[in-house]
Amino acid sequence: VGIYQEHATDRIFKDIWEILKPQWLKVTTKYNIRGGIEAECTIDSSEVFPSEK
Questions:
Q1: What's the chain's average pLDDT?
Q2: CA-CA-CA-CA torsion sign (14, 16, 21, 27)
Q3: What sign for the dihedral angle of Cα 31, 37, 38, 40?
Q4: How many helices and strands, by DSSP H and E, does the chain display?
Q5: 21-38: pLDDT as tens digits
Q6: Domain boundaries in the chain?
Q7: Going by C-beta distance under 8 Å and a sequence separation of 6 or more, which residues neighbour residue 3?
C-alpha cells in the first residue's frame, strides 16, 4: 500500500472529521505485532485542536 501506520491513522481521522464534523473525535489504531514490535497510534481532536475544547 505504501503508507506508514501514523499516516494511515491520520488519514482515517481526517476523513471521519471532514465527513461527520463531530464535536470531538478520537481515533486509535492497533496493528498486529511484527518483529516483536506492537504498534498503536492515537489522534485526539482535543490535542489537535486545543482551542476548540
A1: 88
A2: negative
A3: negative
A4: 2, 2
A5: 999 999 999 988 878 888
A6: 5-52
A7: 11
Grid coordinates belonging to 38: 506492537
Measured between alpha carbons, how far is 50 from 38 in angstroms, rounded to an integer?
A: 28
Name the pTM for this structure: 0.79
Q: Which amino acid is at 22?
A: P
* pLDDT score, position 1: 54
Burial of 7 (0-12, 13-18, 19+ CB in 10 A): exposed
Which residues does 41 contact at the CB level (< 8 Å), separation at least 6?
A: 5, 6, 8, 9, 28, 29, 31
Cell 501514523 -> residue:
6
